[in-house]
């Protein structure tokens, strides 16, 4: 099945099983805005808990804050967002659709990569065990020709984005004969810049209203509070400040479901270090963050680092952690060495000193910053994409299952009475009443036991318990495992010890030690 079709099934599954709904659905929705349903909010909260505890619980020198969405408008002038927070946009005159020029070119680069990968796959099938991929890549005329085109395009794109040079971006699109996916034509306008911040007014009267912005990132709330946290928490450099919160960007080209939205949630940590040590800390945080992702068990081959060709105006090093989505490798987290740009700018624009006094060296300086920034919604989507499976069973049936990491699953245990009579529902309720304080449980008595299993598979519940007539005699139940569908008979008294460690966030955190 084509990956595009798989992705459509995942989007449909999210709505059908209460993970993600289009916002304002009864009013035909609002573009690129989504609501999380009853199962989605549980999964999302578990992701946030895993991230939060990995930061503030496992690191003595990292603490958290929760800053306001509305901030003084001068903050965004100081940070560069008012003048430089833009996307290069291009319109197709025939479809009347607008696109990000850089995304169109990046998609074209990805097509070259896919073409090379297809050649490698075909050769691997042809040569079997004797296949030497490195030698083939170095000698195949088709691969070498495609790679030459890909590298030449990448070099032109990297140079054009440094400005960015809008005319050069347009010329690349023309030279590569990139077509509009809707109209199929190459009738493009010129490329132009568009600021992404939402603005509104704050004040009781129109005359006295002040223009303010919905924050486009959560980082600035940390920067303007860093000295408050440092002094009240008696923090010594190096130390970090973590935050989870909403951000807003007026994305013109919002696409791929919840991958790019106008209202989204970020998990960011700013790590303050002594100037000159930032490039020592940068690779350490790269390794730490990659380990966090891989602890979920999705396979190292599905992750990669992508170093930036174009650095933001505030950075001296930057990389993305990319995850293999159905639509290719895409960014889920950014790691940046932000230098001292933000703190220096806020000191300049506020007119107040926010330097750190180092008691060991008896000097004051503006710290440098290593940032880790991960999109909650993109992380949610990557987990859903990897966990979604349609399995062919031995009896010819197909089951749809979400093989979510047990610690992140919305429901950890479903308890099901075999029938709705003879004391079995009461016994099932008794089990839930004993276990609900340890992890999220769900009672399910509707339909046949087989249909109930399928329903729990579809929302990713790792364990199901069936209460039958033997339960009333010997206090044992049938415990079913989601991934293998295997069943075993266990004592009710053992359920907590069997399940709790496997479904707790602590179990995931232990993998990081």
Can you give a write-up of this model?
By secondary structure, this protein is α+β, with helices and mostly antiparallel strands. It has 3 domains: about 40-70 and about 195-390, Bira Bifunctional Protein, Domain 2 (BirA Bifunctional Protein, domain 2, 2-Layer Sandwich); about 85-195, Herpes Virus-1, CATH 3.30.40; about 400-510, Anticodon-binding domain (Rossmann fold), CATH 3.40.50. The protein contains 18 helices and 23 strands. Strands 3-9-10-16-13-12-11 form a 7-stranded mixed beta sheet. Helix 5 (about 100-125) packs antiparallel against helix 7. The longest helix is centred in the N-terminal third of the chain and has 27 residues, at about 100-125. It is globular. The two termini are about 40 Å apart. The model has no long low-confidence stretch (mean pLDDT about 90).
Question: Could you tell me the strand content as a percent range?
Answer: 15-25%
For the record, the CATH architecture of the largest domain stands as: 2-Layer Sandwich
Low-confidence stretches: none
In CATH terms, what is the fold-level topology of the largest domain? BirA Bifunctional Protein, domain 2
**How much helical structure, as a percent, in the residues?**
25-40%
CATH superfamily of the largest domain: Bira Bifunctional Protein, Domain 2
Count of alpha/pi helices: 18
Highest CATH level, the class of the largest domain? Alpha Beta
Basic shape: globular
Binding site for ATP: 249-251, 259-264, 331-332, 375-378
Subcellular location: Cytoplasm
Domain Aminoacyl-transfer RNA synthetases class-II family profile: 150-417
Pfam families: HGTP_anticodon, tRNA-synt_2b
């Amino acid at each position: 099945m084509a990956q595009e079709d798989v992705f459509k099934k995942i989007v449909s599954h999210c709505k059908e099983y209460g993970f993600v709904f289009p916002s304002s659905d009864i009013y035909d929705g609002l573009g690129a805005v989504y609501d999380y349903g009853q199962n989605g909010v549980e999964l999302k909260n578990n992701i946030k808990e895993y991230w939060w505890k990995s930061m503030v619980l496992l690191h003595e020198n990292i603490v958290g804050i929760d800053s306001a969405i509305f901030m003084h408008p001068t903050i965004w002038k100081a940070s560069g967002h008012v003048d430089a927070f833009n996307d290069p946009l291009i319109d197709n005159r025939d479809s009347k659709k607008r696109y990000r020029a850089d995304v169109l070119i990046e998609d074209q680069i990805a097509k070259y990569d896919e073409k090379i990968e297809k050649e490698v796959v075909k050769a691997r099938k042809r040569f079997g065990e004797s296949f030497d991929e490195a030698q083939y890549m170095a000698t195949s005329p088709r691969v070498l020709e495609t790679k030459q085109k890909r590298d030449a395009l990448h070099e032109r794109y990297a140079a054009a984005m440094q400005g960015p040079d809008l005319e050069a971006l347009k010329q690349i699109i023309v030279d590569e004969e990139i077509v509009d996916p809707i109209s199929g034509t190459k009738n493009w306008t010129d490329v132009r810049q568009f600021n992404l911040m939402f603005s509104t007014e704050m004040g009781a009267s129109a005359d006295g209203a002040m223009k303010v912005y919905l924050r486009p990132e959560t980082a600035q709330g940390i920067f303007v509070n860093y000295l408050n946290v440092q002094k009240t928490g008696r923090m010594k450099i190096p130390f970090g400040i973590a935050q989870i919160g909403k951000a807003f960007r007026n994305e013109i080209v919002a696409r791929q479901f919840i991958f790019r939205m106008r209202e989204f949630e970020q998990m960011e940590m700013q790590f303050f270090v002594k100037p000159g040590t930032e490039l020592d800390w940068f690779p350490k945080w790269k390794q730490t963050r990659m380990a966090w992702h891989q602890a979920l068990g999705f396979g190292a081959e599905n992750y990669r680092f992508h170093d930036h060709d174009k650095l933001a105006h505030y950075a001296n090093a930057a990389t993305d952690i990319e995850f293999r989505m159905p639509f290719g490798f895409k960014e889920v987290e950014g790691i940046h060495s932000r230098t001292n740009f933000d703190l220096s700018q806020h000191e300049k624009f506020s007119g107040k000193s926010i330097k750190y006094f180092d008691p060991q060296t008896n000097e004051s300086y503006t710290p440098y910053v290593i940032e880790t920034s991960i999109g909650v919604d993109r992380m949610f989507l990557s987990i859903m994409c990897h966990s979604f499976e349609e399995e062919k069973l031995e009896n010819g049936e197909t089951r749809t299952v979400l093989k979510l990491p047990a610690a992140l699953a919305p429901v950890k245990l479903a308890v099901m009475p075999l029938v709705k009579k003879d004391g079995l529902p009461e016994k099932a309720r008794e089990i839930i009443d004993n276990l609900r304080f340890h992890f999220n449980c769900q009672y399910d008595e509707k339909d046949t036991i087989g249909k109930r299993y399928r329903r729990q598979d579809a929302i990713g519940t790792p364990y199901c318990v069936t209460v039958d007539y033997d339960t009333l005699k010997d206090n044992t139940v049938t415990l079913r495992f989601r991934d293998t569908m295997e069943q075993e008979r266990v004592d009710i008294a053992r359920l907590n010890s069997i399940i709790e460690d496997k479904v707790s966030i602590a179990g995931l955190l232990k993998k990081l030690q």
